[in-house]
Amino acid sequence: MPKRLEHSSVILLRYLGIVFFSLLLARPSFASTDRGFLRNYKAAKKYYRVGEYVAAQAVLEPLMYCEEGNDITPYTWFYYALSAYYQNDFVLATDTFCALADVFPVWEQ
């Protein structure tokens, strides 16, 4: 193999490796979700289940924006909107549901 072709192959392999590694890191998935994010999400759902909607919203709000790529983020928006609804804040609930539909148009819930 000519030396120039070998050099091109090495550069191509390095480039492909970098691209693959970057895609791997950027891939949104449940498995890559931060443990702190999950812990806070579960805490917010507990608050929601017992009717502590203000506390649920306080925990959910930062989660709505910190990890937009994972599978749980749409649920943070959903529970935030429901918490607003059950506090009779219908404007905030409507705005949040509409934003949820805009930000996550293919979310199947």
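The record above closes out task 2.4. Task 2.5 opens with a second protein, given below.
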Amino acid sequence: MPDNTNRDTNDASPKNIQKVIDYNGLSTYHAEILKLFQQYKQESNVPEVYMADSYLDFPAVGNENYLYIDKTENKTYRYSPSLLHYVVIGGDYHDIKVINGNFSQ
């Protein structure tokens, strides 16, 4: 059985998260693992994702820490607090009209 006596359960670094799994399987309880991942997520600034059927369903004022996905148009947005509106940061590849200076068919 692994020795976890020196493990800091409040350290959510990827190195510490790897310590919960070894060749013998899980060495930490489920609740501790969830706590570690939640802490790591908060510390790493991983954005939350808000999915809606349409961009019209997005909140009137967004959150700059979220990614917004319009499932109908297949586009991804971020909210810009300085511009006070959503900005497209990703779309469907087939919506691109010009690639490398050539019009796509």
